[in-house]
């Protein structure tokens, strides 16, 4: 079950559908808290965390919604923070379909990290001989997550995920057209 905290202009329904589908095809069961915010960059980015969300996770929520903190903080199975491109910024520069596809791919990637956390297969990050960390995309945990995403995208039939991505792209177009909805 996805506990969605949406801080964007996008509607909850298509966003929750994409995130739920990503969790389902990755095999992630149970609760996953997901905070979605808008960014100024043109691409989607995400971070998966193992353990309880911190209380700053609720920053930006109206006071009435902060009362659900007990439900949110009872989510020890991991949580995800996604930053999606702003619909008003992508309206003229980039295809809404590309933005929605990118969100789906990042959601799959972060759910792969959550699955690795839960199964205990998350690989540690080795250091170079000089003591520095390896570049982000070459870390074993990132390679493992991308391989899992590739396997799932090959295995799962396309019509369902294409319908979800198209629904999110249409919502992106609506939010970009009307500005602040």
If you had to describe this structure to a student in words, what would you say it looks like?
The protein is globular and about 50 Å long. It has helices at 12-26, 69-73, 87-93, 96-119, 140-155, 158-177, and strands at 2-7, 32-39, 45-49, 79-85. It has 181 residues and is of the alpha/beta class. 48% of the residues lie in helices and 14% in strands. It is built from 6 helices and 4 strands; from the N terminus they run βαββαβαααα. A 4-stranded mixed sheet has the order 1-2-4-3. The mean pLDDT is 80. The chain starts with a strand and ends with a helix.
How would you summarize the topology of this molecule?
Layout: E1 2-7, H1 12-26, E2 32-39, E3 45-49, H2 69-73, E4 79-85, H3 87-93, H4 96-119, H5 140-155, H6 158-177
Parallel strand pairs: 1-2, 2-4
Antiparallel strand pairs: 3-4
Structural class: alpha/beta
Number of helices: 6
Largest beta-sheet details: 4 strands, mixed
Number of strands: 4
The succession of helices and strands, N to C, reads EHEEHEHHHH
How much helix, percentage-wise, in residues?
40-55%
Strand percentage, roughly?
5-15%
Write out the strand line-up for the largest beta sheet, numbering strands in chain order. Answer: 1-2-4-3
Low-pLDDT segments, ≥5 res: none
Termini separation comes to 27 Å
| Shape verdict | globular
Radius of gyration: 17 Å
Mean pLDDT: 80
């Amino acid at each position: 079950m996805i506990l969605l905290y949406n801080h964007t202009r996008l509607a909850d329904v298509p966003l929750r559908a994409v995130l739920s589908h990503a969790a389902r095809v990755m095999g992630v069961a149970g609760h996953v808290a997901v905070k979605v915010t808008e960014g100024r960059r043109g691409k989607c980015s995400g971070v998966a965390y193992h353990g309880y969300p911190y209380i700053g996770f609720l920053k930006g929520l109206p006071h009435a919604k902060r009362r659900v903190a007990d439900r949110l903080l009872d989510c020890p199975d991991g949580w995800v923070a996604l930053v999606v491109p702003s619909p008003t910024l992508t309206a003229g520069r980039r295809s809404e379909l590309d933005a929605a596809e990118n969100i789906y791919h990042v959601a799959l990637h972060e759910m792969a990290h959550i699955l690795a956390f839960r199964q205990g297969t998350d690989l540690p990050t080795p250091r170079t001989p000089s003591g520095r960390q390896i570049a982000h995309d070459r870390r074993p945990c990132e390679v493992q997550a991308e391989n899992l995403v590739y396997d799932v995208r090959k295995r799962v039939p396309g019509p369902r995920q294409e319908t979800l991505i198209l629904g999110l792209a249409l919502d992106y177009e609506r939010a970009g057209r009307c500005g602040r909805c």
